[in-house]
Design goal:
The complex is a heterodimer of chains A (572) and B (79). Chain A has helices at residues 14-22, 66-75, 90-102, 114-119, 126-133, 148-153, 168-182, 192-201, 203-251, 257-262, 282-308, 311-323, 332-340, 342-347, 355-368, 372-383, 387-411, 431-465, 468-483, 491-497, 501-507, 515-527, 532-568, and strands spanning 3-8, 39-45, 48-54, 80-86, 107-112, 122-124, 137-139, 183-185, 420-423. Chain A has 572 residues and is α/β, with parallel strands linked by helices. Chain A folds into two domains: 3-185, P-loop containing nucleotide triphosphate hydrolases (Rossmann fold, 3-Layer(aba) Sandwich), CATH 3.40.50.300; 203-568, no CATH class. In chain A, the strands form two sheets. In chain A, strands 2-3-1-4-5-7 form a six-stranded mixed beta sheet, sandwiched between helices. Chain A has a two-stranded antiparallel ribbon with strand order 6-8. Chain A is elongated, with a radius of gyration of 27 Å. Chain B is globular, with a radius of gyration of 11 Å. Chain B is of the alpha+beta class and 79 residues long. The model of chain B has no long low-confidence stretch (mean pLDDT 88). Classes of the chains: A alpha/beta (572), B alpha+beta (79). The interface between A and B is medium-sized, with 37 and 29 residues.
Chain lengths: 572, 79
């Protein structure tokens, strides 16, 4: 089977073209480095089935980052390269094009973002460019799909070029010549979007804008999340699911092993979706009615910000703060993705250059950035006792993030590299694209979360029945009660936290904790260890040795912070 | 008289032509691949407080560069 590689600079729309070519669902955003690993899909050309590979963006064929390294390795395996070129940045993009033409592989060039050239006052003579490069050149627009069919039709015209240039100097000279022959620039006025771009990157206006964007984002996420819970999911569970479960409970005789597994324990003779802890009660209520609404609203807002192009600007504004933690501004991206789920957050540490940076970023994220599932549960559970207690949990985590970052920066040898980041133009988010991305992420949550939630609840029930929890509770009682001031049953939550943090927080519910204990328990559950899915990603990204180091830090910090909170917080 | 300035010394909105990038081959190459190279006209868009990153525009590309890196980029400003 022929292999087609999609290659080009970061953020030129490779993934959008890929998705158009193959129909495969991939995450597309407006910031460099969205695709950190290659994705593959298939395409039919007449009778032939062709494999298409979406390669991470690269500026050159000399690998400077991990993503570029992957790109270069893949080049050796391809039969044809579609070089995606940002038509609004012809000169810079042609550098990679020339490097590709020098390799012994057929190339076809897609002049992407063609629609943008018009309002940017750029005119490109496509036929002339094709003549000079001696390979097919096709204008495309990945977001709308324009030109993509034409691109496929010309696959077989792709040619290996005989271009040979000795040095960078020659390459740039050649590029200069090409650009002056094929491109004309027209003067035009600042557009509204460009004025916004300027406002959000100049510090005097940029910092207030950033604070505003963050504040409004949180407001909207809460509004949609709470709205969905209060108006859709809770009513559904209370009025439709509860009667059904009550009947099932009566049918099962209101007790016994099977009843405990499926329905859980009755609280004052009734099913309580938050506390009963059966597979069909709490096991469905937690992921659907408590977590899903927040996942949905978070990813909706994140998707809009991503596609709009805001994240790189935020990275520039926070660069100063991040440098004090041994990171640079772009490390905000794994942190923000980590707020959704620590797994993509961990993967996104690849955007960072060195081992030291990745270690700091991954450790800080795993400790102090709870995922949306966990946040939703903390807001739900601790919020019942009062909003100020939720604030205590999150303020503790924010302080921890800053202090721990500072300490790691001090004790780890090496320097934090400087920011070097291309800032994409603002683009109006395409509603369909946003919905598609939201659906992919929500679906991924449902598929990966629900089995683990159910497994977690099953495991707890079995361990309780086998009295293993009692044994562990006795074993860990000294730490739990004397250091953290928590009842020893909390050990069951710590245990389940390995599987799912949201269920773990939920398990604090039936334990009749004081507000102080609830705050300490929730905070520790965020810190002490990542969930298993995140742990696997950490091992992959950091290696075993660094992951172990990171884990030791997590546990030590959990011990320390738990004890401190126990000392400081008043008994409430 | 022409004026030579480093990027951080440029005023907001001021532009000039890059005449030298003082750095190792690795840095120069990295910057070049991004489109920052000798002979290009650059306009300063923004500078963050406290020796923060400088944001510049070359052709249609906006790039943020750390302060230390920016200091190594020498620009000629026509008076």
């Amino acid at each position: 089977m022929r292999k087609v590689l999609l290659m080009g600079n970061p953020n030129v729309g490779k993934s959008a073209i890929f998705s158009r070519l193959t129909g495969a669902k991939v995450i597309i955003s407006n910031y460099p480095g969205t695709t950190i690993e290659f994705t593959q899909g298939y395409l039919r050309l007449g009778e032939e089935k062709i494999q298409v590979l979406d390669v991470p963006g690269t500026y050159t064929l000399e690998p400077l980052t991990k993503a570029e390294e992957i790109a270069c390795l893949m080049l050796k395996k391809g039969d044809l390269v579609i070089n995606i070129v940002d038509a609004t940045n012809l000169e810079r993009n042609l550098y990679l094009t020339l490097q590709l033409l020098e390799k012994n592989i057929p190339v076809i060039v897609a002049l992407n973002m063609w629609d943008d050239t018009k309002h940017k006052g750029i005119e490109i003579d496509v036929e002339k460019l094709e003549e000079i490069l001696a390979v097919p050149v096709v204008p495309t627009c990945g977001l709308t799909g324009e030109g993509v069919r034409h691109l496929v039709e010309r696959f077989n015209e792709a040619k290996t070029s005989s271009l040979k240039l000795a040095s960078d100097k020659e390459r740039w000279a050649e590029i200069g010549k090409i650009v002056s022959e094929v491109q004309k620039l027209h003067h035009r006025h600042h557009t509204f979007l460009e004025t916004l771009e300027d406002l959000s990157i100049k510090p005097l206006s940029g910092i207030p804008v950033a604070l505003g964007v963050i504040y409004v984002s949180f407001k909207i996420i809460r509004f949609i999340g709470e709205g969905l819970i209060g108006n859709v999911f809770e009513p559904f569970f209370e009025s439709l699911w509860l009667p059904l479960m009550t009947r099932l409970s009566q049918f099962l005789g209101q007790s016994g092993f099977l009843h405990n597994i499926l329905i859980g324990h009755l609280i004052e003779g009734e099913i309580d979706f938050g506390m009963s802890f059966g597979l069909l009660t709490t096991g469905l209520f937690v992921p659907f009615a408590m977590v899903l609404p927040y996942i949905f609203s978070f990813y909706l807002i994140l998707g809009l910000l991503e596609d709009w192009g805001y994240l790189p600007r935020l990275a520039v504004l926070v660069d100063n703060i991040m440098h004090r933690l041994g990171l640079h501004g772009y490390a905000i991206v794994p942190m923000i993705l980590g707020l959704g789920c620590n797994v993509p957050g961990g993967l996104a540490t690849r955007l960072l250059e060195g081992r030291r940076e990745k270690f700091i970023a991954a450790t800080l994220m795993a400790i102090a950035v709870p995922c949306m599932a966990q946040i939703a549960m903390i807001v739900g559970l601790v919020g019942e006792r009062g909003g100020q207690y939720v604030a205590v949990v999150f303020l503790t985590l924010i302080l921890l993030w800053l202090i721990l970052g500072r300490i790691l920066h001090r004790i780890l040898r090496g320097e934090s590299p400087e920011l070097i980041l291309e800032i994409p133009p603002y683009r109006k988010p395409q509603i369909l694209a946003v919905i598609k991305k939201l659906w992919m992420r929500t679906r991924a949550f449902l598929l990966s979360a629900i089995p683990y939630v159910l497994l977690g609840i099953l495991v707890v029930n079995i361990l309780y029945t086998l009295k293993v929890i009692e044994l562990l509770a006795k074993l860990f009682a000294p730490v739990l009660s004397s250091l953290w001031g928590l009842p020893s049953e909390v050990v069951s939550a710590l245990l389940v936290g390995f599987l799912r943090k949201d269920v773990a927080v939920g398990m604090l519910g039936p334990l009749n904790l004081t507000t102080k204990q609830l705050v300490i328990g929730s905070t520790i559950l965020a810190i002490y260890f990542p969930c298993v899915a995140t742990f696997v990603v950490l091992i992959r990204e950091l290696g075993i040795k660094d992951t172990l180091k990171s884990t030791i830090i997590m546990m030590a910090v959990a011990l320390l912070v738990g004890s401190l909170l126990n000392l400081i917080l008043p008994n409430i | 008289m022409d004026d030579f300035k480093t990027l951080p010394e440029l005023k907001l909105g001021e532009s000039g032509v890059i005449i030298d990038i003082q750095g190792g081959a690795g840095l120069v190459r990295h910057l070049e691949s991004l489109g920052v190279r000798v002979g290009k006209r650059v306009t300063k868009i923004s500078a963050q407080f406290w020796r923060g990153p400088q944001v510049i525009k070359i052709d249609n590309i906006q790039i943020a560069l750390g302060f230390g890196m920016s200091k190594r980029i020498l620009v000629e400003v026509k008076k």
